[in-house]
Amino acid sequence: MKNSAIGNAKLRLSIGHKRLGIGIATMLSLCAIGLAFGPKSIGRFTTTPSRHTGPRINTLSSILPIQVRPLDHTKLAIQPMADRLRRRLGQRFSLPGREITTIAGTLTVGSAEHSVTLTRAQDDGGERVAISLDNGPANLAWDGTGGATSSGNKAGGSDRALIERLALDSPDQFVLAQLRPVAYYTIAYGVRPSGISDDYAGPVWDMVRLGEVGDSPGRPQSEWRLYYVNSDTGLIDKVMSDENGQRVLAEFSGWAVQGTEKAPTHIAWNINNQVVMSLSVTGIGYSAAH
């Protein structure tokens, strides 16, 4: 995909790093920022509709040029919050044969709409993600070592923002991030939105911060991500990140069940309460890494 394809979508982002302290004051600031956003209830779990029968799954070698290393599933029990979520999401993090998740859908960036195919591959070093737009080659990719790449080169600008949002604002990445240099920190339990009435009956969240550790070439532009884990469902409702000082909030508004697996069906990314990008899933499939 050419950079101009995303540039035409009018997604305007400046790329850079903003280092955040991990002191108590910073944690409280993050909580205050997060609670400024209104709540959004998670979709009910229903039997997967017919359109979610799963996309055609390509062979792994045609999508990811680097061989995926077999995953030792016992490593995914190190972080209690991540371990709890992986059990709710299904069996793809526990049993062999479901290492590859293929997601088909519609990606909207600004006013431009693209068909998209994401391939998420579990790897002993974390996760590898390949992205194909408009039935083209999967030349947008992310992994925990090299970070975001476009046509094999380090991605920048709006391409990097797009890749990191799709790769990292994900329940799968919340589980698999413990295999790369990331620090999990539970900020608070049972958090409610600010300014609510005493009879509030909406969702409350356990807030977990994932902070990047070290200075690897693949380090994301946001040095932290704040995950809102719904205290009732145990699933992720929102993910907040920082893109050069801009708060980006990814909101999950629907989930689907396919066999034993649960996955989000719609994600919208907001900056200053404006939707700048969204993903609507039309098909999900699971397969073994061959």
Strand-helix topology:
Blueprint: H1 3-7, H2 24-35, H3 80-89, E1 100-109, E2 112-123, E3 126-133, E4 140-143, E5 147-150, E6 153-154, H4 157-168, H5 171-176, E7 182-191, E8 205-212, E9 224-230, E10 236-243, E11 246-258, E12 261-271, E13 274-287
Antiparallel strand pairs: 1-2, 1-13, 2-3, 3-4, 4-5, 5-6, 7-8, 8-9, 9-10, 10-11, 11-12, 12-13
On the 0 to 100 scale, the average pLDDT is 78
- Which parts are unreliable, with pLDDT below 50 for 5 consecutive residues or more? 1-54, 56-66
CATH secondary-structure class: Mainly Beta
State the major sheet.
Answer: 13 strands, antiparallel
Helical element count? 5
Structure description:
By secondary structure, the protein is of the alpha+beta class. The protein has one domain: outer membrane lipoprotein receptor (LolB), chain A. The protein is built from 5 helices and 13 strands. It has helices spanning 3-7, 24-35, 80-89, 157-168, 171-176, and strands at residues 100-109, 112-123, 126-133, 140-143, 147-150, 153-154, 182-191, 205-212, 224-230, 236-243, 246-258, 261-271, 274-287. The protein has a 13-stranded antiparallel sheet. Strand 10 and strand 11 form a beta hairpin. The relative contact order is 0.23. Residues 1-54 and 56-66 have low confidence and may be disordered.
